[in-house]
């Protein structure tokens, strides 16, 4: 038995009971088949936990007794660690482009989700729609189709899974809850969403994942 098997997973991800800024990291671990502890907590519990986090924010990845902050840094590290960051310099740069664009959309989505008054919510929704449509138009033109066993697979970068696909899947799941954003205009991106959801480890995760509000 390996040391990891004796001691349990060496990674622990700290975040709210939500998809939010932690879901792409979760998808990376699941896609790579790497065990981790998904340490979640409620909004009500957060004030008592905040002081234990390095920057007073989450997600935080705990590894080897150390705590690492910033969702973007965690995602990029995990993608490199698990071989899902792209195979060439060009692919890696394209992956980074998708991650950065999705982060911009996610910032607007979370702002929209928590806006208390209808007018402010509508204003942010309009900004989010404009940003998402601009990026989705570009990503639709960049998506790569490859045929295998009489089936067409679509990936955001290259001919195999990368963190860009997982990122796109997550952002499309979030935007599917926004009334004014129509995703059917992007068939290639929807194919990527389907491809990701059909991967065996991802499908199992999605089938057993708790129902989170955002």
Automatic annotation (TrEMBL):
Catalytic activity, EC: 2.5.1.18
A biological-process GO annotation: glutathione metabolic process
Domain GST N-terminal stretches: 9-86
Lineage: superkingdom: Eukaryota
Record-linked SUPFAM superfamilies: GST C-terminal domain-like (SSF47616), Thioredoxin-like (SSF52833)
Positions of the GST C-terminal domain: 88-214
Catalytic activity: RX + glutathione = an S-substituted glutathione + a halide anion + H(+)
ATP-binding found in the keyword field: no
An example Gene Ontology molecular-function term: glutathione transferase activity
InterPro entries, per the entry: Glutathione-S-Trfase_C-like, Glutathione-S-Trfase_C_sf, Glutathione_S-Trfase, Glutathione_S-Trfase_N, GST_C, GST_superfamily, Thioredoxin-like_sf
Keywords of the record: Transferase
Entries under PANTHER family matching the protein: GLUTATHIONE S-TRANSFERASE, HEMATOPOIETIC PROSTAGLANDIN D SYNTHASE
Name of the protein described by the UniProt record: glutathione transferase
Protein species of origin: Elysia chlorotica
High-level lineage: Eukaryota, Metazoa, Spiralia, Lophotrochozoa, Mollusca
